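Bumping with the actual sequence this time:
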Amino acid sequence: MKPRNLSAAGGLVVGSLTAAAGAFIVNILSARMLGPELRGSLALVLQLSYFISPFLLLGAEKRILRSGKDASPKDAPPYNSILIVALIATPACLIAAGPGGLLAVPISIVAVMFAYVRAWNVARSAVRSYVIPFVCYQASVVIGALALFFGGVDRWEVWAAVYILPGVFIAVWNVRKLLWRSRKPLAGLWSTLRGNKNYMLASVSVIATTRFERLLLPILANPRELGLYIVVATASEPLFWFAQALSDIRVGAGKASAFSRRAFAIDILLFGSVGAIGGVAINYLLVPVFGEAYEESRALIAPLILASIILALYRQLSGKVLLGRSSRAFAASEVVTGIQAVIVYSCFLLVFPSALGAAWGSVAVYSIAIVVLAIFGFRKPST
């Protein structure tokens, strides 16, 4: 790897580790202060923000990343078009989670702006310009959570607000080069959607694959089950953050897109080892760190760690498909994966409406996802 790519790799890993550390700290503080049920309500709003984000991104971040140094600010949609989509999403959040659900919209806007900053700077090999503001944002979230914890605040809506302020100001300042206004926002929205529809479909499908069970749990079970689930799921997410950074580095560096058994075996060893160590740590620290109320979550550690390892491997393979195949092939694999995720999660949670059902459902979903990706992403094109 060239020195410049090595520096970029180090920067993205730092950003990923910072995000993982921040999420872990906030997870602990919110879990201890709110308890399983209110922690589940907070998690529901955060999951809604994840589902909104792909519709606000409109696939533009993937186009920017794929374009590399040829990326242009015009690859991002006009900001007034993004705001139109945000307004459309508002009623759905209100219906799903009540008045507090409206917080999902500004949270998703902050996440979208950082996604643009990330894609733009990775494409231009200027990772430091992304990492520094992102670390500042993560620090602001942690500081806000600490203030709420020591202040004894037990309203989950206030905890959700720490993901908005002051992060929105940090995000706007750093994404300003990509912000532009269209005199015809609906036309700008349609133009971006038409050009990036395959990428947007892929993004929506990825969110369905990785988050759909978290929306179903409060509906088919209750918020408490989501609270029990989310503490372990969030604690296991650092592996995914690391895998995402590694995949983005490989795409940005133009690594070979052909499937390599040797490289895949190395990835299995890498992510399997890290996941196993993480699982042992979570099992040992669960009750001392999160509290006695989360003893029931211990049964979720094994399936969720296994799911994280499989997801990390899937992320590496999907990066190769993004680099090496047409956007249509990439979108096809992701869309089929998303559809099967909705079906499998629904079946698991209808039969086993609990956190454990969701955990084993995620193992099944990610395993099937790798098979789907192998079929659609690495098959030889017909002649």
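The tokens above came from a reply further down the thread. The chain is about 80% helix and 0% strand.
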